[in-house]
Amino acid sequence: MTVIAVVSTAGGAGRTTICSALAVLLARRARQVFAIELDAQNILGAYLGLETLAPRGLVHALLDSSADWHAESFRNDDGVMFVPYGALDAEQIGASEAAFAAFPGWLAGALGDIDQRPDAAVLIDAARYPSQQAEQAIRAADLVLCVTTPEPAGCVSLAASIGPMRRGGAAFFIVVNQLHPTHEMHRDALALLRARVGDGVILPQRLHRDAALPDAFARGAWVFDAAPHAQISHDLHGLARWLDGWLSAHAETG
After folding, report:
1. Helix (H/G/I), strand (E/B), else coil: 201
2. Which tens digits make up the pLDDT trace of 211-249?
3. Is residue 106 within 8 Å of 213, Cβ to Cβ?
4. pLDDT per residue as tens digits for the range 101-124
5. Angle between helices 90-102 and 132-140 (to 10 degrees)
6. CATH for 2-253?
7. E strand spans, the chain
8. Which H or E run includes 220?
9. What's the pTM value of the predicted model, to 2 decimals?
10. What is the domain partition of the chain in residue ranges?
């Protein structure tokens, strides 16, 4: 089993969109895929086929040791097994933050309970870094994919956080999302990011801003099905192809 933490340091980066799309595309490549939500927004299930936000999920097993988080799992039409975070009230949010801090290895232990094939991939949609949830995801991961938009604020926050995020020792790569290549500010922000972190960790598989993506989601469809020739569809397939290759190489060397 290989664990991939999908994180971001700024809101609106597209982390959940990318995590859910990669889960589906990897499943269509005949991989066994699990998607785990570690974000109190509790919206991953909506991307993967739930019609309403899940009232219970992974976090309730953290708050109640007698709860079985496997009972809160779902399988979508593409065969992706996924576990929502679950809905919390204000008091429960505080309790969950304290519990994550008190048990820093809780997620890694929970993932060890998954019955999986050796080539299985677990994608974790983690809350915005820094957070207890993101720390747990990074600590459990073999690979960290950090999603950023090519905006100055997002690139600066990522550059400032990259050191702490890499302390866990997992492979680390940056995914640039919502790129408009003719936008001068985007080019400048990427140049700033490259100067701060180097080219080696920024994946060449960049995701472009494309109106086909929100249009497809509005119709309840994956963009690579609704608009297979759109730029973003090619981009997502390219990122999934790279990740599938990375997983195969990791399995051979690991």
Report:
1. coil
2. 999 999 999 999 999 999 999 999 999 999 999 999 999
3. no
4. 999 999 999 998 776 777 899 999
5. 40
6. 3.40.50.300
7. 2-8, 33-38, 74-75, 81-83, 121-126, 143-148, 171-176
8. none
9. 0.96
10. 2-253
